[in-house]
User: Fold these one by one.
Assistant:
Number 1:
Amino acid sequence: MKINKNFLDLEQNYLFSTVARKQREFQEKHPEADIIKLSIGDVTRPICPAVIDAMHKAVDEMSKPETFHGYPPEQGYDFILETILKHDYLDRGISFKKNEIFLSDGAKSDCGNIGDIFNVDNTVAICDPVYPVYLDTNIMNGRKNNIIIMPCTEENDFLPVLPSDDAFGGKVADIIYLCFPNNPTGTVASKEYLQKWVDYANAHKSLILFDSAYEAFITDGKYPKSIYEIPGSKTCAIEIRSFSKTAGFTGLRCGYTVVPEELEFEGTKLNYLWNRRQCTKFNGVSYITQKAAEAVYTDEGQKQIQENLNYYRENAKIIFDGLTAAGFKCYGGIYSPYIWLKIPEGYTSWSFFDELLEKCNVVGTPGSGFGKSGEGYLRLTAFGDRERTKVAVERIKNHFGK
């Protein structure tokens, strides 16, 4: 028996596991410390009442033979697929069919699993800094030597340049990972910018994997919420979305992936491949969770989740304004729940993390954990409690000042 040695090419520990371990060890040494977590992107507001009511009704249905539900369709029940289709696409002028939408147990799962349907020899373009799942899962699949790293720095406004530039030796990217609003930097992308990527992908017969998990934080219409707002994208892009940040489903787990029928490579439709993969490896999302997701789109559900989202948006403003006033340079926080904090000179991302924990009892996420270009930054999340967030900002201001 031989192991998959690609796993040995990964960092020893997953980023957020390391952050949690360091926090736990500090707490054990200092049990009196009042630690405030602004690290992991986990929501703290309760699931809204409209969704809870729908779940209660679904649980009651499961108790009666005539309304009991066993294995769900691997792609999702018609009622949720039709709701997603209408609200997220048809009402926005984007036409799809429901067989192009695949419900899942979250965007993280789909981001990691989508690589199953691609050849190991594909060249993969990944931003740096980046959500670790993109890079790690491609290494797991054996693509370590086929990865193009696209630096996202202050100099290029945290927006990657196209992989055909000389900086990448003229390599063509077969698969391109894009995430906007971006995790961790909070950067947003204009339609004009995304059009360049769509044109590149179509010209080079490449595929864009577009992570739109934070689209709910775009509210003013200035930036696209979906890659499919860009002409030509249906022939080159897969979109992955989540209910985790939009509706607080981090503990409930639900998301979806759109695979247009127009996506065809080597004479094979990716829609068929993804459907085949899901039918084999995935048993679908529970009926109770699917009814919960459906309730998100009701008038009452939309009103209630916006109240929670506004709460997090205000938290982001409190962090951004407070730390900017203290002399820090901050990015993100407007179309994103994350503040990308530039740390003072003389610190590394991890040494700043350590001092923040020891002196302020505040936990962030070191930028270097998202990639080499993240060195010199720290990510803070707006998903915490309002009063605790204010306390954390005051502690940071008092310790670091200007």
Note: The longest helix spans residues 299-325.
Number 2:
Amino acid sequence: MKATIFNIQKFCVNDGPGIRTTVFFKGCPLSCLWCHNPESKKVQTEIFFDVKKCIGCGKCVPVCPKAGHNFEENIHIYNRENCIACKNCSEACPAGALESVGYEISVDEIIKEVLKDKTFYDNSNGGMTVSGGEPMLQFDFLYELLKRAKEENLHVCMETCGFAPSENYEKIAPYVDIFLFDYKISNAEDHKKYTGQSNELILKNLKMLDEMGSKTVLRCPIIPTVNDTDEHFEAIGKLAESMKNVIEINVEPYHPLGSGKTEMLGREYELKDITFPKDETVSKWIEKIKKHTKVDVKKA
């Protein structure tokens, strides 16, 4: 059994307690306009094309079996509709202008890589985090990976958007120490508008996990002009206060770092006019949430 991931990142300190290794799965059922990992949206391997790095050597042209690359008046034209992500072009590109994103890997290979840093986990109360994308989209593989991780006595965190069958969350809950659970938008209509899906199933799963006793960190991306409202801040606080096992609220201020990657995937980034919020603005967001809960609230 294999899954498609796009990165195994070591020495992470923001994906759960201690020093962690984070495994990033490809594929997500949501389509958030502000996504900072746009390469995670599709399960399939994709190709980044950074036109600024292209040196015009043309080595990608003859190796593409689908005529995906050509040059017109010394301008590199990448025909993505022809691309089958065979990786020939990225392997031939000497300048790194073409880069494949996503590769298949087995449970054994992931565990072997994660265990290389077990000493750091033991000394910092860290472990392995699975992220994405949405790990639940490749559920059978995820289930086997989490079971193996616990067999190796690894502390496990899982980042999730919450949009997956409830029975699957019930099945994996015993193997996850902390769920890093996204709470993006409290208004149901706006949630569907900005993420492509309703938040009904998400809230159902969040409350079910809480009733099961699963520890949860609420991760709240705050996007100016989208969900930076007093109503949403109040909803975050009240939601946390209504549950028994929310151990922390993380405010994740918007950043536009996904815009460049979105463009390298040949897509349009829709929030071009929004930039980093000021620190004082983020502090005000945190204080507004704190008014409605005793749960610790901090910037992620």
Note: The first helix runs from residue 60 to 63.
Number 3:
Amino acid sequence: MRRILSLIIMLMVTIVVLAIVNLLIGSVKIPVTDICRILVGDSSESEIWQNIIWKSRLPQVLTAIVAGAGLAVSGLLMQTVFRNPLAGPSVLGISNGSALGVAFVVLLSGKIGGVALSRLGYLGDAAMSIAAIIGALAVMLLILWIAQKVKGNVTLLIIGVMIGYLANAIIGVLKFLSPEEDVKAFVVWGLGSFSRVSGDEMILFVALMSILLPLTCLLIKPMNLLLLGDRYASNLGLNIRRARMLVIISSGVLVAIVTAYCGPIMFIGLAVPHLARAIFRTSDHGILIPTTAFCGAALALICNFIARMPGFEGALPVNSVTALVGAPVIAAVLFRRRKDEVSE
């Protein structure tokens, strides 16, 4: 237990250091002492620097922290309930549902109304966020209805993948029928970004995730029982179907909100649970849920830092960076697990 506490403290310190590094990095060089003065409310600093910190860099840091934590916990929930190491937040087509909702706003609204909502500034951004949430929740409700009809996790998993393919097919048709400018806007949204959220949107996003993430801790006991197998968990008094639905709802809501605000962010939900298990060497979700959230926040900050490193014009797409960072993490964990199995 002392080892785990030490690792948690180290992880929290790492998050603080990465947050400071992300505040320092940018096209405008701001000394760390001036950043500290701005954060404590010193109004004597340059107004330009204050705007850069308060309206750009700090919102990006907070968005990356809560989005990374939310996606990581969502991935952990999915991998546990399906007992599949390759399950992730997008496994049931929920992310694809969000993308389909945004596709209707970006690609179809211009064709029907003459002006795409994505070009209407804040109104367009709000419409895209609402459409993403509606699309994700619609797919989630469909999955919950199917979950009541089927018993096997594998069957539900396959149906979820098929729903994702169906959503992608509809998006492909909409792309084909839409003007090039609208297709470009949708593709840019699909690359994912932590910089879209600012001002009141950022406050609402962080507040929602700060409420939802602690609520996932209520699933610790059911998740630990699910690890024992359905039959044994049922004998211990767990309602398997109810527990499965609660996990799907929790994971789906987290994914829906993150996707609505940041776009589809890949690999974090898939890679981070493996990383947390490898670091803390436990299957107890009382430890894994908070530590996975911390690891997700740290990895998201690393990806945001790489995307905004000096030398890049503007910022790299976050999904490109998460794939570059996440794929080696998964490969290393799987190789290490295989090595341990061979040595045993």
Note: Residues 59 and 198 are 6 Å apart (CA to CA).
